[in-house]
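Posting this for the archive.
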Amino acid sequence: MIGILLARCVTLVAAALLLFIAWQDSRHLKIRNQAVLGMLGLYALLALSEGGRWFWTDLLAGAVLFLVGFVMWMMRGMGAGDVKLMLPLGMFVGLQGLGAFSLLLLAVSVVLFGTIKLAQWRQLEVGLGGRIAEMGRSGKVPYAVVLSAAAVPVILWQSFS
């Protein structure tokens, strides 16, 4: 019982940290190493609270996401901070949540892409619309926002279902 309660508390803190990371990335286009290390530390607490039973499959999911991110970084399609974040995201999502995460990631990415194109087409200059149009012009997208939007629901669903 205490293990379940600890796991749920750690999950809530991890979700909050992901939202903070997304907010920071949206403002500064930077994901700090301390935040990624914090996510890894939270995962370690989660793994301990669950007796480590999913550790190896979670590590595999994290490695897969990191590898995909690394390839994207090599092709200049993703920033290094986003790639670093993929490891703990994959570990929190695990192999069992990788499919749902991937589908949500695709959906959120398509919505963001459509929003960027719409903002550019409408030639928005100020406010949130202007910021979104600027993403399209500069090619600099705070992808931690998209990653977090896809990961948080999956992580919470797994913990509380």
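The mean pLDDT is 93. The chain has one domain: 2-160.
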